[in-house]
């Protein structure tokens, strides 16, 4: 496999935070991403997994969702990379780069298709009530061009913060419509309250699909006014908590209302003559229009990275941005027009792509960085830029761009001391150890004269003072910087709870992905 596209002949643009969004605005952006079309299938997922186990699994999925968002940023901070694909390249090389972008593309493009399917399930009913007989295909085609496409030309997802707030505000009346009218139909349907259902693992895939937002983690983190671990933890905590409450209250009401007859799109369980439900359908369709960009932006970013238009230092040109936007929108629109089976699409995308993105890759990257010795490995675009000191300084600036002094992982006790203070401390320690042996000390001073440009202490090369260091060669300075940087990486300590959390993500993700994808493919191929 070839390496990711290089930067030769291109103008660099260092990835800087937009810095325009508050914690609450970022929370709404994440919430808008998680509460999408997948919410309509959660009642179906509870039926498939069993009522009791379904509720427990929904809580587990929410916790794992928050952990994946948090661990991704912690891992990115550790090596100074703030784009998901660049993180995978830094830890797994070119294979990780292309694998991650491919999965993100299929996950988010699949989500966009589900939004269009939902629009096709809702808006035609509303138009029919108004006296307009328009086919599902034409509704999706025309409405997508008019209401979705104009929202796709922004470059930053932060520009959609207000759109996201409007979309989230539409959810309470949608939930209210289902809650009020759903119970009216409950007597006509049978409910089975088994603790364990017949299709548990594909149901977990549906839940993972509904709660997924890992693909937008770095996009949202870099829009924070204060991009720190503490602020990110608060933003994601609020978003995931609200997402779980909204999603699974909706799901439980749907299950109580239709029981074993609930459909993957819960609104399809209602008759088309219910006025309040039709109002909910209208709001749901509007919400899908506003939510579509949250899935489209990561899909477009994945294409840009695969084509070499975007990396940790490079942004797409205007021409690349517009061409890719239109070129991606057209096939998604075509799939939305001709595909209508939501259930299997949810299970397939959720079981494979969602679990891979949300659980497996964040856990794997964490262990490769903190335990696998990949902490000092930078993506290819961080290498070969500049000569000598500039290369090291640019890399170190990249690492520290979003450092949070209060919350980030700290170095060893003395790793952050200035160089001269560090040398003084070590020299004093050596003098104290040899206080009772002046002859030994004199011998040591003769063997290691203090006027040399560098003193070798415990195997580390450290400058003694600015005046003395000025006589050293540029190659020695570079070696010293590399040694300090390597020491900084090796000095980091992990946090036990993060180690456990990353292990949970990795093990649960692998287990669910293999079983869920296998069962769904068997069903699609007619073997189950």
From TrEMBL:
Keywords (A to Z) from UniProt: Amino-acid transport, Membrane, Transmembrane, Transmembrane helix, Transport
Domain Amino acid transporter transmembrane intervals: 22-374
Signal peptide segment: none
Compartments where found: Membrane
Low complexity composition bias: residue spans: 461-476
Annotated transmembrane regions: 52-74, 95-118, 138-154, 161-180, 200-223, 235-259, 279-299, 320-339, 345-371, 496-519
Name of a matching Pfam family: Aa_trans
GO molecular function, one term: L-amino acid transmembrane transporter activity
Acidic residues bias locations: 389-410
Start and end residues of each stretch annotated as Disordered: 377-410, 461-489
Cellular-component GO terms for this entry: membrane
InterPro entries: AA_transpt_TM
Membrane-topology descriptor: Multi-pass membrane protein
Family: Belongs to the amino acid/polyamine transporter 2 family.
Protein name per its UniProtKB record: Amino acid transporter transmembrane domain-containing protein
Organism whose genome encodes this protein: Mortierella polycephala
């Amino acid at each position: 496999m070839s390496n990711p596209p290089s930067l030769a002949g291109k103008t660099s643009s260092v990835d800087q935070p937009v810095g325009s969004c508050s914690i609450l605005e970022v929370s709404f952006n994440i919430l808008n991403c998680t509460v999408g079309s997948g919410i309509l299938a959660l009642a179906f997922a509870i039926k498939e997994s069993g009522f009791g186990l379904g509720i427990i699994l929904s809580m587990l999925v929410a916790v794992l969702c928050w952990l994946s968002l948090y661990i991704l940023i912690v891992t990115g901070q550790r090596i100074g990379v703030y784009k998901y694909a660049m993180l995978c390249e830094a830890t797994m090389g070119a294979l990780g780069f292309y694998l991650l972008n491919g999965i993100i593309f299929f996950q988010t493009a699949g989500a966009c298709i589900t939004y269009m399917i939902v629009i096709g399930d809702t808006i035609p009913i509303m138009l029919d009530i108004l006296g307009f007989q328009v086919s599902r295909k034409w509704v999706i085609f025309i409405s997508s061009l008019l209401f979705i496409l104009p929202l796709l030309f922004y470059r930053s997802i932060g520009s959609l913060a207000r759109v996201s707030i409007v979309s989230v505000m539409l959810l309470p009346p949608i939930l209210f419509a289902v809650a009020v009218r759903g119970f009216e139909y409950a007597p006509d349907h049978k409910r089975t309250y088994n603790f364990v259902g017949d299709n548990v693992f594909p149901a977990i895939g549906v839940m993972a699909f509904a709660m997924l937002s890992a693909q937008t983690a770095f996009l949202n983190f870099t829009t924070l006014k204060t991009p720190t671990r503490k602020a990110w933890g608060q933003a994601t905590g609020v978003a995931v908590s609200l997402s779980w409450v909204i999603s699974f209250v909706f799901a439980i009401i749907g299950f109580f209302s239709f029981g074993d007859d609930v459909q993957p799109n819960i609104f399809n369980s209602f008759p088309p003559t219910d006025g309040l439900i039709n109002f909910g359908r209208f709001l749901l369709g509007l919400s899908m229009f506003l939510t579509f960009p949250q899935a489209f932006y990561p899909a477009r970013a994945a294409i840009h990275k695969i084509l070499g238009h975007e990396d940790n230092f490079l942004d797409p040109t205007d021409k690349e941005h517009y061409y890719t936007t239109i070129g991606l929108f057209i096939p998604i629109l075509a799939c939305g027009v001709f595909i209508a089976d939501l259930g299997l699409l949810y299970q397939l995308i959720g079981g494979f792509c969602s679990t891979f993105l949300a659980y497996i890759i964040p856990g794997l990257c964490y262990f490769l960085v903190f335990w696998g010795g990949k902490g000092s490995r930078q993506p290819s675009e961080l290498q070969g830029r500049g000569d000598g000191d500039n290369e090291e300084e640019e890399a170190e600036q990249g690492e520290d761009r979003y450092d949070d002094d209060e919350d980030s992982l700290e170095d060893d006790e003395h790793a952050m001391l200035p160089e001269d203070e560090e040398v003084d401390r070590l020299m004093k320690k050596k003098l104290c150890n040899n206080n009772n042996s002046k002859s030994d000390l004199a011998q040591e001073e003769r063997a290691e004269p203090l006027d040399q440009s560098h003193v070798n202490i415990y195997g580390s090369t450290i400058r003694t003072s600015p005046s003395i260091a000025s006589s050293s060669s540029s190659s020695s300075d570079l070696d010293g910087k590399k040694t300090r940087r390597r020491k900084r990486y090796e000095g980091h300590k992990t946090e036990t709870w993060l180690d456990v959390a990353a292990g949970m993500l990795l093990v649960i993700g692998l287990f669910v992905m293999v079983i869920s994808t296998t069962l769904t493919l068997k069903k699609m191929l007619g073997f189950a």
